[in-house]
Amino acid sequence: MSFINICRDNTDPFYRYKMPPIQSKVEGRGNGIRTAIVNLAEVSRALGRPPTYVLKYFGSELGAQTNESQDRYLINGAHDANELQDSLDGFIKKFVLCASCKNPETEIQVKKDILQRDCKACGHLSLIDPRSKLSSYIMKNPPDGGKGKKGKKAATATANVVGGGKTIADLVTDQKNDDESGETSLVVDENDDDDFLTKKINAEAAALADESIEVNDDDWAVDMSKEAIEARAKLDGLTLDSNAEFNQLGEWLLEESKDSKEDLPSDIDIYKKIVELEILDKAETIQVLAQTLFDDNIVEQIEEHLGLLAKLIKQEEENSKAFLGGLERYIGLENTSLIEKVPKILMALYDKDLISEEVIISWGSKVSKKYVPKEVSKKVRKAAKPFVKWLQEADEESDEE
Q1: Which residue ranges of the chain lie beneath pLDDT 70?
Q2: Most buried of 10, 34, 343, 380, CB within 10 angstroms?
Q3: The W2 domain covers which part of the protein (predicted)?
């Protein structure tokens, strides 16, 4: 079975949160016509939500009655899979994705008259619009374990589903939001009005009564052992979407070098493969290479692949940022032991004229959650700070001269 990204707006070739696409079947005729969602249970399990929530959302969005009978999920009328998939995107945005980090590692909590998403990736709490018809249904039918819990929690991410319902996501722990105050913030997803402000005040008051959340000092990272990387590559290779070519390139490189990076194809063969996949001028190609060409000997390996990297990056700003983004993802999530070597890595890229000082300074001066969670981005850029500062000072001295 093919899998698609839970957040279809995410174009990361190694996006690890997958779900099966909606499969529907139209039954009956005339006034009795209806649509059966064949795999709603599997889709809901990937999202970590009860199937009834998704079914009720479809009913309210499509203006049709729904029915659940013996694990069969039905909607009155004829609705094709594409229409249901587009509607599901709205459900995911409103009831699954974290409003801060956009990860689907969330739980719905019901507290008094408040519905909120509790993110297990970044610890962020975001309010769910109480005006939605589904919100009223959830209030009356809260998820198991989603009501009245307090204090520190840990949960296994259910979004990263492989065939058979297995997961490759590791255990993640609660963390506080990135606010300088250190307090967990609540964000209203829709435009504020009096009703929302009232809800927000009540939610913050309820949060004060909760036990304090302890911050785990360990790096937030998934299990990126060799086995996990191979499993992720195989999963991505099955994805039939606009990222299929990048997934194929990444899967091929990881498979070829599963024993050692010395077993990687030659730069010429890698270049031919990129041409064959027709992704030569795509910034995502550079991002894939940044995540698959290196290991602990990255500084030396930059020299080994200099010809290929120089030809693809070409000192273009978009390509340079994509390469740094791929490195940030590899270093921050897959090989955290390299974080302390970030200054040496940047020096190698700068010294070999792969990345300009302007791009490095710009990248190092601003935290971004485009490629990794914000907390991980902070750690990588904090490690880069000495080299970025050196570049800035050298630039200032040059200006003075």
Answers
A1: 1, 13, 145-243, 395-401
A2: 380
A3: 239-401
